[in-house]
């Protein structure tokens, strides 16, 4: 996530998104409640990312390699 000249990545990005998002709807309220704390985001994000990567691997998807890093297309 990029805000002005600052780039947020990983748990910092999900924390920043949670603080900036609206509180309308169950999912947004839940995300805010869970990720409003930097510590919670730092602890929970890696678990969620690992689950996402496992699911994408099981589905046979490839990574988005928009930086064209060699051998960075498989999970």
Unreliable sequence segments = none
What is the helix tally?
3
- Main pleated-sheet profile: 2 strands, antiparallel
* Radius of gyration from CA coordinates: 14 Å
What's the total number of strands? 2
The total tally of domains equals 1
Q: Would you list the SSEs in sequence order as H and E?
A: EEHHH
Percent strand: 5-15%
- The termini sit apart by 22 Å
Average pLDDT taken over every residue: 89
User: Structural class per helix/strand content?
Assistant: mainly alpha
Enumerate the strands of the largest sheet in spatial order, edge to edge or round the barrel.
1-2
Describe the structure in your own words.
Helix content is 55%, strand content 5%. The chain is mostly helical and 75 residues long. It has a two-stranded antiparallel sheet. Strand 1 and strand 2 (6-7) form a beta hairpin. Helix 1 (11-20) crosses helix 3 (38-58). The longest helix has 21 residues, at 38-58. The radius of gyration is 14 Å and the shape is globular. The model has no long low-confidence stretch (mean pLDDT 89).
List keywords for this structure.
75 residues, mainly alpha, 2 strands
Give me a quick take on this structure.
A hairpin with a 2-residue loop joins β1 and β2. The chain is mainly alpha-helical and 75 residues long.
Secondary structure layout:
Blueprint: E1 2-3, E2 6-7, H1 11-20, H2 26-35, H3 38-58
Antiparallel strand pairs: 1-2
Helix pairs in contact: 1-2, 1-3
């Amino acid at each position: 996530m990029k805000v002005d000249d600052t780039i947020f990545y990983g748990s910092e990005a999900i924390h920043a998104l949670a603080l900036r998002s609206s509180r309308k709807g169950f999912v947004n309220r839940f995300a805010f409640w869970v990720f409003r704390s930097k510590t919670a985001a730092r602890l929970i994000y890696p678990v969620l990312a690992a689950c996402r990567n496992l699911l994408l691997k099981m589905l046979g998807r490839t990574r988005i390699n928009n930086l064209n890093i060699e051998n960075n297309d498989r999970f």
